């Protein structure tokens, strides 16, 4: 019988962290060996015998947490935002010194969200116009969301590969922010409302028709199948994988 994965969760007392603690405890092939809060020493995950780390902390400490894990040969699954190109490049360089270690950085762990993003990226090749709206709870610290940025990047890449030009827009004057953020030429609009969790719409328009691809997470439990998939897969995918779609056979 295969030994259970020995998992340490960083940021275990937050909303996502609490869900992850429950999910790992309920997984028959995993053992939760450490659940750390912001005041706990990360060194304790080594003493606990962890082989896998889930980082659900904050951008200010996520990078140092993940680099600590990699430096000690621990596989890491990361749901914290703030991993820009520079940080990912630096982590990739560190991973070359630990060629058997895997890291997954996922802007979104909801499988439906990952699929919706992939479908939208493909569909956007066939429409003249495309824009994004992401909607989240008001406690979210970043805007646009990491999921929206990732979606816009993949849409832009898909449209460029297909030779599709920018969305038409005759705007000559506007208030600051009225047209949203520009992510690789794709307009992204952020909404923050009490009562929401995580929601995203990709709106695509052509002559006489519109296609909307929307995903809704009503509870943070929706992210847990992706977290568990990441934990079960990361050791077999050495190096850095950015986006849970890298672990899915989408065939697109």
Automatic annotation (TrEMBL):
**Protein EC:** 1.17.1.8
- Could you tell me which residue ranges the Dihydrodipicolinate reductase C-terminal domain spans? 113-246
Q: What is this enzyme's catalytic activity, as reactions?
A: (S)-2,3,4,5-tetrahydrodipicolinate + NADP(+) + H2O = (2S,4S)-4-hydroxy-2,3,4,5-tetrahydrodipicolinate + NADPH + H(+); (S)-2,3,4,5-tetrahydrodipicolinate + NAD(+) + H2O = (2S,4S)-4-hydroxy-2,3,4,5-tetrahydrodipicolinate + NADH + H(+)
- Indicate where this protein resides in the cell: Cytoplasm
Q: Under the GO molecular function aspect, what terms does this record hold? A: 4-hydroxy-tetrahydrodipicolinate reductase; NAD binding; NADP binding; oxidoreductase activity, acting on CH or CH2 groups, NAD or NADP as acceptor
User: Binding of (S)-2,3,4,5-tetrahydrodipicolinate: at which residues?
Assistant: 137, 146-147
Which stretches make up the Dihydrodipicolinate reductase N-terminal domain? 6-109
Root EC class:
oxidoreductase
- Write out the residues that bind NAD(+): 11-16, 79-81, 106-109
Biological process terms in GO annotation: diaminopimelate biosynthetic process; lysine biosynthetic process via diaminopimelate
Its annotated pathway?
Amino-acid biosynthesis; L-lysine biosynthesis via DAP pathway; (S)-tetrahydrodipicolinate from L-aspartate: step 4/4
Q: Per the record, GO CC terms?
A: cytosol
What does the UniProt keyword field contain?
Amino-acid biosynthesis, Cytoplasm, Diaminopimelate biosynthesis, Lysine biosynthesis, NAD, NADP, Oxidoreductase
Q: Where is the active site?
A: 136 (proton donor/acceptor), 140 (proton donor)
Q: What does this protein do?
A: Catalyzes the conversion of 4-hydroxy-tetrahydrodipicolinate (HTPA) to tetrahydrodipicolinate.
Subunit structure, as described in the record: Homotetramer.
As for family, the record states:
Belongs to the DapB family.
Q: What is this protein called?
A: 4-hydroxy-tetrahydrodipicolinate reductase
**What is the organism of origin for this protein?**
Neomicrococcus aestuarii
Lineage of the species this protein comes from: Bacteria, Bacillati, Actinomycetota, Actinomycetes, Micrococcales
